[in-house]
# Entry
Amino acid sequence: MNAEARKFIVTPSPHLKAPSSVNKIMFVVAIALLPALGGSVYFFGLRALWLVIVAIVTAVISELLMNIAFKRPLETCLDGSAIITGMLLAYNLPPGAPWWMFAIGSAFAIIIVKALFGGLGNNFLNPALAGRAFLMAAWPAKMTSGWFLREGLGHTTGLGIDAYSGATPLGVLQKLQDAANPTVAKALNSPETIKALFFGNVGGVLGETSVLLLLIPALVLIFMRIIDWRIPFAYISVVFLGTFVAWLLKATPVTPIFHIFSGGLMLGALFMATDYATTPVTPTGVWIFAIGCGVLTLLIRLWGGYPEGVSYSILIMNAVTPLLDKITRPRILGEQRKGRKERK
# Structure
């Protein structure tokens, strides 16, 4: 080895080497999402697996093509980020949606939302949620139907409303709020319904129905410090406390437990609001971001015309993230506040 090769290269701090890489983190998260995939296959049949594969393959191919087009390293299409985007996009779509919607949504998420903004870490919106929002705008009828369960799993409330296989629980809640039927409210608040919501025996999008299959892997990720606990804690707490007050004031006919177990709250709070690239980097910003997600979800669910508010709440707060980073940035030691004159 010559003298030039033995020279030390001095670079700016920090010099600590992190034990985890992007690839490791992405694949650990992908593994954590597998229980929910297994649950979707159990509840909705083998077609669920096919749809998730379509979304993942489309995401990886889209990233590969964009890397070629922009002359970026080709191996980044296999760093795990595209796989997670495809999985989460699929988890946010109804099991009865046609397969081509999974492909189009996944391609939109990678090409428009991620690659055109510079790739991983440069996108300001969660790609999977943006893909879902695009599909909702393009094909609203297909995005709000097809909530079927595998034969033999679905059951009705016995009140003429099929709360589990014909509609999502939040969809039934919206009808209930319009009709003000106390008997249906009692059925939705029953232990049987709460149990079905917790284990996943309800209608919904592919990856959101089972609280259990989302919560256990997420707790493991929190223990590994891959997920920031403050975001899901603040998000879910705000929704719980808000719906508790609304329930006491009779602004909603169902309990807070129903609200936090139903819809995409757990999937969104645990795996989508915690996306590194689209959330604030400062501790104060993280708290504001999570609380904002919770407040917006409450506003949409309780007073909006759409039964679910998780995806749009996270997307709105994603857009606010650069501002939160700016206003919560700690002052550098010795830095003067703007407009403040130095003492003579």
User: Anything to note?
Assistant: The longest helix spans residues 47-70.
